[in-house]
């Protein structure tokens, strides 16, 4: 039997997701814990983006309602993308460490960064174009 098929007496076959834990060998726990911290950082980013979207939607700002709702919606969508990146990035990195493959890149992170920049630009332009 191979390591991946269960000959390791320390392997817990109940761990989920099997698509990650069912492959390769156990990496150094420090690397798995660092990967988990990165996952949690993405989750904190998601929560901050959702809080920003909710606050923007709830406030009565001196900007057109349609612009305010659009920016809040964009923030919520970016939060969704960040949550997906958190899970996808954790799983891909953990699987790579377990199988000895090169660590994956995170192109989705650039999409999230660009979307946050676009929302920030929208808020700046709205503030600048607001009549006194």
From TrEMBL:
Residues 30-96 form the DUF202 domain. Keywords: Membrane, Transmembrane, Transmembrane helix. The keyword Lipid metabolism does not apply. Pfam families: DUF202. It is a multi-pass membrane protein. Residues 1-30 are annotated as: Disordered. Its main location: membrane. InterPro entries: DUF202 (IPR003807). It is found in: Endomembrane system. The chain crosses the membrane at residues 39-58, 70-88, 108-129. This is DUF202 domain-containing protein.
């Amino acid at each position: 039997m191979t390591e991946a098929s269960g000959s390791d007496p320390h392997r817990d076959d109940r761990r989920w997701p099997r698509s990650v834990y069912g492959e390769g060998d156990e990496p150094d726990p420090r690397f798995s814990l660092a990967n988990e911290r990165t996952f949690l950082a993405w989750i904190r980013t998601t929560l901050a983006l959702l809080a920003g979207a909710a606050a923007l939607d709830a406030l009565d700002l001196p900007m057109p309602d349609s612009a305010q709702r659009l920016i809040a919606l964009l923030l919520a969508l970016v939060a969704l993308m960040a949550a997906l990146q958190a899970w996808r990035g954790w799983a891909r990195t953990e699987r790579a460490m377990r199988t000895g493959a090169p660590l994956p890149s995170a192109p989705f992170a650039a999409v999230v960064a660009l979307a946050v920049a676009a929302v920030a630009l929208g808020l700046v332009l709205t503030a600048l174009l607001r009549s006194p």
